[in-house]
Amino acid sequence: MTIDRTTALPTDEQIRALHERFAPTEEAFDLVYTHCQIVCAVAEQLLDRHPAALDVALVRAGSLLHDIGVYRLYGAAGQLDRENYIRHGVLGHALVRDLGLSELLGRFCSHHTGVGLTREDVLRQRLPLPVDDYTADTAEEQLVMYADKFHSKTTPPTFVTPASYAAGVRRFGEDKVARFAALVEKFGEPDLPLLSRRYQQPLI
Question: pTM to 2 decimals?
């Protein structure tokens, strides 16, 4: 796929306005937008250590938009549909497309789940997704996907150490553990204690 990297990216303010527009409640906005800000902060830490030149503005916009599809999973009563949570990526991609934003940004939504979902994963796990590959292909997509692994929107939200994430992803197969280890090797480890203190959220 040929991607036009000259396409104008939305500003931080425009992305925040989109979160405010689609968040069904203030609580949902705080949860999702703060998570996106944290993923952006993690990614920016790691950008400084990566030897290859990455598109910094694209990483920032992708980080801030990657979870916008979560809002589509809130029902009328304000409850999150956790059973279909895995659909938040494709829902976000569709939302970004409907807004007329770059396909490049939509891919950050649909290609950040876990350490990448393959067509085989979708079929084997019988996931409620169109059968396709949802893997991060570019270095920018890989970085945002990786940064996302270090923060969880649990109650309360928490930062996740590399060891904790590796232990949790093992239930999906040793290949997922190996893929995560390759990302650690490629991008390094973020300073999570610093971010934990900054956002006053625990580190597990």
Answer: 0.94
* Preceding omega of 202 cis (within 30 degrees of 0): no
Please name the residues in contact with 118: beta carbons below 8 A apart, sequence gap of 6 or more: 133, 134, 135
Q: Assess contact for 147 and 63: CB atoms under 8 A.
A: yes
Q: 160 vs 38, 151, 164, CA distance in Å?
A: 12, 5, 6
Q: Could you give the CA distance from residue 16 to residue 18 in angstroms, rounded to a whole number? A: 5
* Mean pLDDT within 137-141: 96
Which stretch of DSSP H or E encloses residue 159? strand 158-159
In CATH terms, the fold of domain 12-150 is Hypothetical protein af1432 (1.10.3210)
User: What is the residue extent of each domain of the chain?
Assistant: 12-150
CA 4 distance to own-chain centroid: 22
pLDDT mean over 15-28: 97
Q: pLDDT > 70: what percent of the chain? A: 96
